[in-house]
Design a protein that fits this description.
With about 250 residues, the chain is α+β, with helices and mostly antiparallel strands. The protein folds into two domains: about 160 residues, no CATH class; about 80 residues, no CATH class. The chain is built from six helices and eleven strands. The strands form two sheets. Strands 1, 2, 3, 4, 5, 6 and 7 form a seven-stranded antiparallel β-sheet that branches. Strands 8-9-10-11 form a four-stranded antiparallel β-sheet, with helices on one face. Strand 8 and strand 9 form a beta hairpin. The radius of gyration is 19 Å and the shape is globular. The N and C termini lie far apart (about 40 Å). The relative contact order is 0.16.
Length: about 250
């Protein structure tokens, strides 16, 4: 199971998910809705584009991973089976280098198993694995890359890293973060881990965390202008989230 990848990804998941939303918004502003646009990929040329009759956004593409249904495995771009894509998979070798340095077995093995939980749609599981990979990529490659995940034939899915996007992606602001935080904090595995990871990736931002005598956890997040928000949350005896409150200072 890809537990190591999942844990790495959860550190960056709020930051990465917000950036994906902002990139999607930029795509729709420039080329229209997904119903009226399409994406084009030529890995031999490291070419990615989001295209419609009204516009185009291009980027340089790197193949990070491929996810298969049968058997349920993810294959890193550095695997010998994907060497045919030449320069498009060169960057993926950093995954293995990082894994060796930090003793992360999920990154060192070219092919990693994942599981289909019972009663969950397979395509949702595959999409979730793709997001785990995209989130974890921030730790390995830094914030200059965005990820893009797409289904391909046979139910498989690929995860690309994009750089040199031809149109700017709007930055994350405190208000944008605040408006989407209730949804994301109900989805993450470890709220404190993901909040701290988000702030680490935001230059000039800070976070203070503490617990009160009633078992309520508090986080105070301040952006680079000095504006801040407060988050309070609490779990029940089964570690289920039972309380979540937000305040904008």
């Amino acid at each position: 199971m890809h537990t190591g990848i999942r844990r790495m990804g959860q550190r960056n998941c709020i930051y990465s998910a917000l950036r994906q939303e902002l990139m999607d918004t930029m795509f729709q502003d420039k080329v229209g809705s997904y119903d009226s646009s399409r994406y084009e990929v030529d890995l031999n040329k490291q070419y990615f584009a989001m295209v419609s009759d009204t516009g185009k956004v291009t980027a340089k593409a790197h193949l990070l991973a491929s996810i298969a249904v049968e058997p349920p495995t993810l294959m890193w771009g550095y695997a010998d089976e994907l060497a045919q894509f030449g320069k498009a998979v060169e960057l993926a070798h950093k995954v293995r280098e990082y894994g060796l340095e930090h003793k992360e077995n999920d990154l060192v093995s070219p092919e990693v198993e994942y599981t289909f939980p019972p009663d969950i749609d397979q395509q949702l599981v595959i999409a979730s694995v793709a997001h785990d990979i995209g989130f974890a990529a921030i730790t390995i490659f830094g914030t200059n890359y965005y990820y893009y995940s797409s289904p391909i034939r046979g139910g498989r899915r690929v995860v690309l890293l994009l750089e040199n996007i031809s149109e700017p992606v709007p930055p994350i602001t405190l208000d944008y973060f605040y408006s989407r935080l209730p949804r994301y904090l109900q989805q993450v595995d470890d709220i404190a881990w993901s909040l701290e990871g988000f702030v680490e990736l935001m230059p000039g931002w800070s976070i203070e965390m503490n617990d009160d005598d009633n078992g309520v956890h508090h986080a105070h997040v301040t952006d680079d202008t000095g504006t801040s928000i407060r988050v309070s949350y609490q779990f029940d005896e089964y570690e289920r989230l039972k309380r979540l409150e937000f305040n904008h200072d």
